[in-house]
Design a protein that fits this description.
alpha/beta, about 400 residues, Rossmann fold, about 35% helix, Dihydrodipicolinate Reductase, domain 2, 11 helices, homotetramer, 3-stranded parallel β-sheet
């Protein structure tokens, strides 16, 4: 694993747990973790359960005892590490968003396509696909229980930077994070919307805002923030979006609205989805991730209503491996399911999902959103990833 | 109508509205309202829309232009007025609880049985039966959608007297109210439980408490409160229960729990019901009276969940007369539905429900509850009302 | 009153009830109702409680015994009737949306301004301002309890035309309704958003769709639908939007999203609002109209949470006139409150709200939305109504 | 660890995870697991992460490399193993309910008191005390934020045996499980109620029922079920309660209701609590374990409401070690917190909670409940555990 902060901890938990819960044809070993700071990575290895630790990710790729590399660094280093890892013949799990730009994402998707020919697998870490309620909803939609999809209503609401004195962390700088709320949390709802519907967003109109323009430099700010002329007054410029909203059309004709914000006071991690179709509807809130609301419009009108399905039954996705009905799971389990599916696919010689191309498709939406927002909300087409990958490969 | 405070206002609203909403074979006229205080009853008549006002209810009964008497006084006067009205050949709607004692209730039920032979109708005002969600639930249970009933869980939670300085109003004195939370709000959940299940409570064990034993006498306290030795310090004794809880068994084998309290801080009018059967379950909260939660256990396990049925569809009880789907009703509409059903029954020469005998059955439960609470929670049988009425008639 | 279908019924209920609930300096009399069809208007008068009925609205305006005219017709006749009524010196309550076009709305606002000089009052029927939870939220925001507003998230979701065989009623034809979901229900959320924040939408980007393009002509279709070439196959063209979504910016800097749709399967009347500010947030759903969710971000973080305020306390707007705490109101009460405020203002010689100019401001937003949707979502400015009225007056 | 089925898996997860999440002065090692069947325990050791496995728990106790024994067997073996472990100088964590009888529980509590003198620690596994929302509620009540407690309303609702053909597993036989719903899930709500209020139940009246009297013997039924004369028809007798309800009084004067049932169709693991005090109220549902509803009655009445506190903030109990706000925990984390607190206490030379005496206090309530249910709901006093332990020690 490369990187060991928030996502590194979440992924480590999954790697540690997966064999204790699921029957898999292979046993996972946490061989080595890599980070830039020797002391911090040593402490992380100890805390997170990795046998070894390193500071040079290229050295990590050179090791023979490593089959798979899990990339948990900020987005600006994804492309370089992932492409090198694939070329080194390592399977790759790369955190989302796949990259900070379409160009990088395209290169990564092309590299993944090439590696795939050699049996080297890759996947992007859109973990919310593995929340059982989301997997169940995918099944319902694939079974046409919602009929023709008319509306997708998606929002990812957080509030952790509403305080103007919250420091200028790396997630608030474009050079590291690529974008702000859009890439961090907006990426999740774009991926979920496309995954759940089995359709893709083909055009968007967008609006973006940075409510708080400068913030205090973090204690011990590194990464050349001050060198860049910021911080004379101890503050630096926020160079990403605090909030981005966009409307879109799906290829199949559905209308969609998306909102990603870090200024929704009181909403901590409210990823909300509602999908309306000709035969039914569904709704979800990540703050209540064990529940799926489902309405079946084919039932008699006097009995219809949104049912709160507690997604903890043995016949729900992933659940047979866990606890009895009603004994809920949490946020972290989505990562455990993610590595379960990844390991199972690698062992079976199959492609895990979402592929880098799927993740590129998300990136293409984010890119169109940024271009629309920069062009006074002008309607902006989203190309198909397949063509983009072919182009990059050519 | 006799009485014109809270219930009088609610009933008046219903009488005024019913012909504007429902097609009925008769047109309701608000002929006269009766109250003890000449000035207050005159003001009430004006405010509530009654053509005339009087202070002597016997004079009211003597009028030829009155077909039906609606009794909205405190429980201690129900028996006398209702029996006189029935004997005078007036149809009667009597507020719940039917009476303050079983003896009175039995006499009223016997009088109602006699009057019925002469085509004179009577009903008790358990208005919550006419909340559309409750009528819908009755239909579902009658259609065996819940299967064999195993559990009834009922609570009626309010908090209006948690402040120890809230005054000693008539509802807190046994001689006027009969009992406290038990008769006022406990009566509703007993009636609903029996109505919805179509079954009756046959035995109980109970617990009762008065948390605040004395309260300030209300400004202008009348009714001999001070004469009774109370109030030397400006306070008088609370002589009814603040909260009563009881467990019971239904004749059909279901277990039940009931709670009526005025000390559930933050719960304003939370009449909550949950019923579990072998084939399904339902839940309700009066604070969200347009909704019924229904679970159909015959559906595939991965799709089961409590559905929130918004009970505003045209095929829901009473709703075709109101607004389009999703346009909600409120508390007062239960009274409008009550008089709709009453007028329809009277015009059709049929017996409205609940009958005085049904209400006596509730009273018999309340009485058993009081006796159990007074006897260290001893298990106490509840006799069948039919036998009681026959006994009274003999 | 002119018009007597759905809105006519809702308004009549309010006129009948208001003096029985609120203390007002004047007593309302339901003098006459006007409709095109003599038989239907006669039946409506009887049902809805109007003393007289007419078929010529100009004759209605000529009557001396009428002080106020309530216009409940489809939007295409609002301007003509309202302007004539104002010129006849009648106070006017006009249903929303104010008109089917900005030009009409502007003329109406100008007429209202002129009439006002003569003490003739006017208001537009955005009744949801008078839902107590909305009035409470307005108070909280005006008291700066939410701080600086950052996000307004508004949706009005219905599903009554998801069936492609639902007939082509007047609301689905542009010449009568002006627009579809946008004007019918989108108008409400635009007005609420502007009213609650005390701010106005200054620019928008929009997306619109008609999912079902033709529908069966209604039985007895009139209004020249067939004459227009529609209906050779018994079907006619839907000429309004089924769904319209738009993003906007408020003058004060807040971002907003709006959605109005009649294709949200399972959502019956889900007007949902969420507002996030620097100090707090609030959320509302019209399907639970007695509740307001409020988060106070100034409280200690370990105690923060969205509170469900049951808006039924005596110190909540309008509530002291109704029932005890926890005894809920319904949809129709918003109309009762609307006429209460209107009558109070007229008697006090004050201007009721929302004024025609306020309603014109809504119309200007709707117009910008339609223009943006027609221009590939191009960003479209919304002019201020004041200037528009001045221009019309000039 | 002794025992390795459901509870064994949950506890193992906690032991594996605790050092990766919390800073503790000691590192946990999963030394050995013990079970009766050699093959099954070997597989369990592999699956659950134990270094060694054994079939003789006495041999386990004899090992020098074991400091702490975690007892996860059915209740009928708790006393023997726990007392032997304590005598062997091992710290003990024993699953709830502490024992199947008061006599056993009393002996265990006495043994724990003796061992304690030698620095040997013990705790009972009432894991729900460690759900963060419950720990937060304990803090609020201890800080007197709810004031004087008036009502405790507790129910634990499941539905896993509503099907009459569900087999006769060990939990349905008195000789193994002690009781049915009462001891299995009722024990949890009794413990929580006493823990949260800091008070104890002093008297009860109870009602109990077994709805389904015989069930199919499980495939490969052992434990002498058939030998006992059951099963001639392939079915055996259910000898425990399906549902038990009881009312109680707390020493401090609060009234309480409790319900434990396995027949609440559609309720999977609904442990619900509501506590009303003179200054506030709180409500909880284990199916939404990241949330606590809290009402502060000292705030202005027009702003009061139950707040949904999402208990995922860094200043909430246990949360600083986990994920960012809004990233939820699940059922299993209560066990991780339990072992965290246990290890911390053992290392600090302090007594972990709940003690065996605390658990005995729960057992005394359960015993009184069973006696009341067997005696026609007669009011039954609950003795204080302290006295009972002293008596056992004498």
């Amino acid at each position: 694993m490369v990187g060991h902060s928030f996502m590194g901890a979440a992924h480590s938990q999954a790697w540690r747990a997966v064999n204790h819960v699921f029957d898999l044809p292979a046993r996972v070993e946490l061989t080595a973790v890599c980070g830039r700071d020797p002391e911090r990575v040593a402490a992380a290895a100890q805390r997170l359960g990795w046998a070894d630790h390193m500071t040079d990710w290229r050295a990590l790729l050179a090791r023979d005892d490593i089959d798979l590399v899990d990339i948990c660094t900020p987005g600006d280093s994804h492309a370089e590490i992932a492409i090198a890892a694939l070329e080194a013949g390592k399977h790759v799990l790369c955190e989302k968003p796949l990259a900070n730009s379409v160009a990088e994402a395209r290169a990564m998707a092309a590299a993944a396509e090439q590696a795939r020919a050699a049996g080297v697998r890759s996947a992007c870490g859109f973990n919310y696909r593995r929340v059982p309620a989301m997997a169940l909803l995918r099944r319902l939609i694939a079974d046409r229980r919602l009929g023709e999809i008319r509306h997708v209503r998606a929002a990812y609401l957080q509030d952790w930077i509403t305080d103007p004195e919250f420091p200028l962390v790396w997630r608030l700088r474009r050079e590291h994070a690529g974008s702000g709320a859009l890439g961090d949390i907006g990426a999740h709802i774009v991926d979920l919307a496309q995954y759940l519907t089995g359709d893709r967003v083909v055009g968007v109109t967008a609006l973006s805002e940075t409510f708080v323009r400068t913030r205090p430099l973090p204690a011990g700010a590194s990464d050349g923030l001050t060198a860049r002329g910021d911080g004379a007054d101890g503050r630096g410029e926020v160079t990403v979006d605090d909030a981005t909203l966009f409307l879109g059309r799906f290829e199949g004709g559905a209308l969609a609205s998306f909102e990603a914000t870090r200024f929704a006071t009181g909403r901590k991690n409210a990823l909300r989805l509602e999908i309306n179709g000709s035969l039914g509807s569904a709704a979800f809130d990540l703050e209540r991730l064990n529940e799926l609301e489902f309405l079946d419009a084919t039932q008699p009108t006097d009995e219809q209503g949104f049912r709160r399905i507690l997604v903890t039954e043995a016949d729900h996705p992933y659940l047979s491996a866990w606890w009895p009905p009603g004994h809920t799971l949490g946020y972290e389990h989505s990562f455990t399911h993610q590595v379960r599916d990844l390991v199972a696919a690698v062992c079976a010689g199959e492609d895990p999902t979402p592929s880098f191309t799927d993740a590129l498709q998300v990136q293409l939406v984010l890119d169109a959103v940024e271009r629309s927002a920069a062009a006074e909300s002008a309607w902006t087409q989203v190309p198909a990833a397949g063509a983009a990958v072919a182009e990059a490969a050519a």
